[in-house]
Design brief:
The protein is an alpha+beta fold. It has two domains: 77 residues, Phosphorylase Kinase, domain 1 (2-Layer Sandwich), CATH 3.30.200.20; 138 residues, ATP-grasp fold, B domain (D-amino Acid Aminotransferase, Chain A, domain 1). The protein contains six helices and 13 strands. Strands 8, 9, 10, 11, 12 and 13 form a six-stranded antiparallel beta sheet that branches. Strands 1-2-3-7-6 form a five-stranded antiparallel beta sheet. Strands 4-5 form a two-stranded antiparallel ribbon. Helix 1 runs parallel beside helix 6. The chain is globular. The two termini are 34 Å apart. The structure holds uridine-5'-diphosphate (UDP). The site of uridine-5'-diphosphate has 13 residues, from strand 9, helix 2, strand 11 and strand 13.
């Protein structure tokens, strides 16, 4: 890592954020800790930090190439990335393309039902409160964002969804649902922040019909299916294979 980190600013469940010599940049370290159910369940899974860091970097780069503003600046080794310092908006934006997880616990919608158009849910990011789902009027009442900013956040999240559906489809993965966090940079611009990884996305393997085997994301940990690192590793392998293929296609057309 070329850049030295300064003091720790924040430690979360899966990452540490450090200051740098530049006021508007931070270094983010991805940890091997795995937590679920509001940290009631915890394990250390060797290699998870590396996999999530590398997968997130690929996805942030891909989004950047498609004009989605993100906090990501560069990879700094296996488990570190440099990012723009942001003021986190304490909201979690979840997009669902296929019903599973909390949606199926809280509604009669059956597991595996396609959702079209995709459902966008906004949660209040607060572990002590259990990240509650917000209604429209509660979101307004909280006054965290203006109605224009809300429109921008929702349209950014939907654009990320469309881009990522296509990205994962090409490598035989179905994007079931995912969570995004956003923040304001020092110019007040809204950026996609945090991470985009199998900790925050559900991804099913199109090459398997088995309802457990096809799960490659954090549900392997939540449901005690084992093979968490293998699942994450398979996602990174396919992403890297896809990137290699794209680079070869460019080389061929240039050569
Ligand atoms: N999610 C997340 N962090 C959270 C809650 C959810 O990254 O604190 C992700 C989760 O991995 C899934 C999506 O958001 O991809 C929807 O999760 P859901 O609401 O179904 O909650 P869960 O079943 O994980 O409790």
């Amino acid at each position: 890592m070329e850049i030295k980190h300064g003091p720790l600013i924040y430690e979360g469940k899966a990452k540490r954020v450090y200051s740098t010599s530049s006021q508007d940049k931070v270094l983010i370290e991805y940890k091997d800790d795995a937590t679920a159910f509001n940290a009631l369940k915890h394990s250390v899974l060797s290699g998870k930090g590396l996999l999530n860091c590398q997968i997130s970097a690929h996805l942030f780069n891909f989004l950047h190439q498609n004009q989605v503003p993100t906090h990501f600046l560069s990879l700094q080794g296996e488990t570190w990335m440099l990012a723009q310092r942001i003021n986190v908006i304490p909201l979690e934006v979840v997009i669902r393309n296929v019903a599973t997880g909390s949606l199926c616990k809280q509604t009669p919608i059956p597991e595996g039902e396609p959702i079209n158009p995709p459902l966008l849910d906004i949660y209040y990011k607060d572990d002590d409160l259990g990240d509650p789902l917000l209604t429209d009027s509660r979101l307004k009442l909280l006054g965290l964002i203006t109605s224009e900013q809300r429109l921008e956040i929702e349209s950014l999240a939907r654009k990320v969804n469309e881009l990522m559906i296509g990205f994962f489809n090409k490598i035989d993965l179905t994007l079931i649902d995912f969570k995004l966090e956003m923040g304001f940079n020092n110019l007040g611009k809204i950026l996609v922040a945090d991470e985009i990884s199998p900790d925050t996305c559900r991804l099913w393997d199109n090459r398997s019909n088995d309802s457990n085997e096809r799960i490659l994301d954090k549900d392997r940990f939540r449901k005690d299916l084992g093979g968490v690192i293998d699942g994450y590793g398979e996602i990174l392998k396919r992403i890297q294979g896809g990137a290699d293929k794209a680079a070869n296609a460019v080389n061929l057309s240039e050569g």
